[in-house]
Amino acid sequence: MKDTKISDAELEILETLWAAGSALNANEIRAHLNEKKDWERTTVLTLIRRLLDKGVIAQEKREVYYYTPLVARNAYVKEETKSFLNKFFQGDAKNLAAAFIEDEDLSREDIDELREYFKESFR
Which CATH class is domain 8-69? Predict the structure, then answer.
């Protein structure tokens, strides 16, 4: 998974599978996706095929194929976060936090909440 690139559209398929918590077939995946926008069946099947080729999901033949993720959401998020930090902030989370503060993306309240979170987390 480490060097596997997942497109935004592929990620939507993964998010659907993670949210479901159980195996889904292509029609069920498409039905979930169509709650937000209209996905063509061929598009969903193409994205599923790409995820299978990348080894990110597995398929199981029942009456039709069912798909399950092979990577947990939290593991994927952790890997993507590390990649983002390395790419833009030389792997240093302090640089990321500084960028938020400098650009005023974090309010004083946000900073205070983060401070409390870190105090509680690292006791």
Answer: mainly alpha
Walk across the sheet containing 57-61 and list its strands.
24-25, 65-69, 57-61
pTM of the model: 0.81
Specify the DSSP element, H or E, that contains 57: strand 57-61
Alpha-carbon distance of 118 to 107, in angstroms, equals 17
Per CATH, which fold does 77-121 belong to?
Penicillinase repressor fold (1.10.4040)
Enumerate the CATH 1.10.10.10 domain ranges in the chain, comma separated: 8-69
pLDDT in tens, 35-48: 999 999 999 999 99
